[in-house]
What does this fold into?
Amino acid sequence: MTLDTSLFTQFRHELHQFPEVSGQEIETQKRIKAFVSQFKPVALSEVGKTGLLLQYGENTEGPVTLIRADIDALPIQEVNTFAHQSKIEGVSHKCGHDGHAAILARLASLLAEKPVAKGRVYLLFQPAEETGKGAEAVLNDPVFAEIKPDRAFALHNLPGFPTGTIVCKPGSFTSSVLSLIITFRGKVSHSAEPEKGLNPAYVMAEFMLRTQHIQHPDPQSDTFALITPIYTTMGATSYGVSAGYGEIHVTLRTRNAKRMDALNTQLLSVLSELSAESGIAIQTSYTEAFVANENDTEAFAQVKQSALKLGYAFVEKQEPFKWGEDFGLFTQHYPGAMFGIGNGEDSPALHNDDYDFNDSLIEPGPSCF
It folds into this structure.
């Protein structure tokens, strides 16, 4: 049964119209399940709470391959006005996960047309990539624990690269990313007598100024380290009160886990010094951790060979991308690779409010897999 590829474009547009943020992909899961059931997988299981796992092939002899797509959207208000624009206020698919899901659905249809003769292939529709929680939830799911893949693969669309160009590299493909939350607890006082309290404002400012000298934002450097201010708050709009509490959130990015550990240690040392000098209690906590995608050398070679065999343009990137991707957790456990596919040189960037996935990738993506 050869299907009209427009069916998958329509499916992508449906997902785009009804986006759901990380961990809340309940209707998305239902839509995907209803759509892919027509491709008769050997088994179809719910994993990671709001994800889906499809199995093709039943042979216990031969390789076990995992291919993953993410399905969650972002808390971004869409500004596009095309027919398939988001119908959900303040939520939209601004990273192209709707397109990734359509690619995996198309792959399911191809596997249904040409059954797996040796080994097994598992297709994973993974939730909660944007928060870094989805891969962990799947890996900890007893259903997934039975699989033990020999290889794991994933792709991500890449604005700024020519449409359909395959981009990959051995080793680190995406960065290690860690979000750091820092609280500064001093003591409130009358704003006319700030000396009788401990206002954290200058300590917070000093910390942010020091991060400018600690970071090495050049992505081509082995010591690459990016510290991005994300959010800050302090005190309240009560003009007779000198603030006694403040908070800073920053995101840290490095090439690998070792460099991340060194950067984190350096920042904690600065905070300890500032606390001792000021008397302000400083505490840290972490959220949304992404380990670097470490592409296996042989898996990278497979991606390159497949792309060239199909006649696709291929680019071997020299340095990792600066963004994080929780597929890195899979490559920590199994040999595998993530690769990119060009979304168009004029495409708005990922996470921009006018971004949209390029539907012409729905065919080359599955072909490469």
